[in-house]
Amino acid sequence: MDCLFCKMIEREIPTDIVYEDEHVLAFNDINPQAPTHVLIIPKKHIATLNDIEPADLATVGRLQHTAAHLAKENGFAEDGYRVVMNCNELGGQTVYHIHMHLLGGRAFTWPAG
Q: Which domains does the chain have, with CATH numbers?
């Protein structure tokens, strides 16, 4: 498989890891859009949100739990933060391995910007 994130999980590509457990890997985004911008990925390859199966629900929930944990650890949980998941080309997905963006440390407006 030629998946960038799978290569990061396998340590084939250097990654600035901020959190890891048996199901999830989190690392700093190489093009941050906020003072804290972390990507949180499942270690299981799931290409898009449309590909999530019922057996994956606990793993996907761990992404949310990890985001909340990292927001608290980084000191902005109470002030607020943004989590984003993109799906397919028109949704802005560029790497086809589901991932959650955790953005914090600044105020956000709607629409995203």
A: 4-104 (3.30.428.10)
> Does the pLDDT at position 39 exceed 90?
yes
3-state secondary structure of 68: helix
Q: Which of 65, 97, 99, 101 is catalytic?
A: 99
Kindly report the number of other CB atoms within 10 A of residue 102's CB atom: 27
Helix or strand holding residue 67 (H, E): helix 57-73
- Segment holding 103, helix H or strand E: strand 100-104
Global pTM reads 0.93
CA proximity to 70, closest of 35, 113, 30, 111: 35
Mean predicted confidence (pLDDT) in 49-62: 96
The reply to whether 99 belongs to the active site is yes
Using alpha carbons, select from 75, 72, 60 the residue that is nearest to residue 23: 60
